[in-house]
Amino acid sequence: MAGYPQWHTASEQGPRARNADAVSAYAAAGAPGITFALADGVGDDPGAGRAAQTAAAAAARTPVADGPVTAILNAQQALRKLGGTGDAVLVVAMPFTGGYRIAWVGDARAYGWDGSMIRKLTEDHTMAEYFRTRRQPYSPRMEHVVTTSVRTTTAPEIGTTEVVGGGLLLTSDGVHKVLPPATIDGILADPSRAAATLVSTAIAMGGHDNATALFVEPPEVDVAAIVTEPFPTAA
Question: Which residues form the PPM-type phosphatase domain (predicted)?
């Protein structure tokens, strides 16, 4: 679509019983740009998939002026209205002049892309990361135990950051916990195929989880200066 940054998304189920990842990209009429959200359901059951879809959609439809933290809290409200116990981790990116404001819970990640190398923008909310930053021992299993989630988080626990310039990559852990940074760098060299190749490569390299990626190419125009038109959700 002319005037919008080019973006690409892909997802594969892998050896799980179902794909509990979800992606949403939405721009309300008159809003300054597109909001992107990627959610990874906690578990391998239908409730996890519904939670991810609900969280991603609610986050993406949050007005850009409200910011990405509010987007995650809106996702939380949507999960509570949904009922049940389904939960998800989530990363949200909202445009501002020259870049994106980002918020996250759990181990969904955002990376910046300068055209040659990725830079990790988020820090995993996992038990492993908690002990790693405190120079304490941890087990491999702790890499998959999250300390925040959409359903359980409070506002002060939500991670925030921003990135100016370049491209943007959002991934579920089925991608970034399988592929080393150098492999991701090489794949992003072909932007139009990047999302699909990241996902298929992660599965081919033995990934045991759902694998999902959303790649936003570096914009040719200021993403926050765009006056948008109604735009369908991609999930």
Answer: 6-218
From CA 184, how far away is CA 112, in angstroms rounded? Answer: 12
Instruction: Answer yes or no: is 125 within a domain.
Output: yes
Q: What is the DSSP letter of 97?
A: T
- The answer to whether the CB of 18 falls within 8 A of the CB of 51 is no
- The packing angle between helices 46-60 and 68-82, to 10°, is 140
Domain range for residue 151?
A: 8-216
CB 66 within 8 A of CB 78: no
Residues in CB range of 200: below 8 A, 6 or more apart: 10, 12
Distances (CA, A) of 92 to 113, 189, 197, 225: 16, 24, 22, 19
Q: What is the number of domains present in the chain?
A: 1
SS3 80: helix
pLDDT tens readout for residues 127-155? 999 999 999 999 989 999 999 999 999 99
